[in-house]
Specification:
The protein is an all-alpha fold and 278 residues long. The chain has one domain (64-277): MetI-like (MetI-like fold, Orthogonal Bundle), CATH 1.10.3720. Helices cover 77% and strands 0% of the residues. The protein has 11 helices and no strands. It starts with 7 loop residues before the first helix and ends with a helix. The mean pLDDT is 82.
Amino acid sequence: MRRPYAARGETAFRWLFWVYCGLVFTFLIAPILAIIPLSFNSGSFLTFPMPGFSLRWYADFFASDRWLAAVKNSMIVGIATTFLATVLGTMASLGLARLRPKLRSVLSAFIIAPIIVPVVITGVGAYFLYAPLRLTNTYLALVLSHTVIAVPFVVLTVSASLQNFDVNLVRAAGSLGAPPLITFRRVILPLILPGVVSGAVFAFATSFDEVVMALFLAGPEQRTLPIQMFNGVREEISPTITAAATLLVILSCMLLITVELLRRRAERMGGQGRVAAE
């Protein structure tokens, strides 16, 4: 909304800023906008202009045993990773909130390290860790390795929710005789639930979209959807890959909408908590 007494230079800067943001957004979204129409191509090659409109590649995706098996593996690994990462990340966030600032900063750096270190290095380390234990080519190795890179996202979101948490509520529950587990379930969890669910969404998206560590640890029976897409690009460029990519884009958009709804709910709950405290 334009302010009534905005200077001409300020108005011009605002318009330039919005134009710049629009160009950056277009640059980032252009590859996706190019892939989605190709998934409806009636031809057998990825070419523009398209010879016609068809759903044959979506039919080929849902009729292929390889693609469906890859989706199934991604769902199994993603759900298991989400559960482990959410539990461990929430526990870590609650523990970090009770520490002194200096110690909290050091431990937070170690926990967040997996999203800073290149995934290739983490994948090589995971391979040499799990290979002597004969855990490679197993679902367990994939779940554990994906949990390592998914936990930091849960810690970040839950820790952000704990910033507005009133510790006096825990003390009040304890003074009324509530044990720690009941206090967490009835007092802490309802207030930080948007952050926990947001972290779970990010953990699932991280696991579902991960390909590097899966290349090191997955066998033929554990081939996930990103690996199937990678092999499809390497072996033969079939338009079926564009259909799979479009479905992943739709899934990502749904997850982003979920996170945004949770963020707004958290803001409303935070505002209501401040009003009640006043």
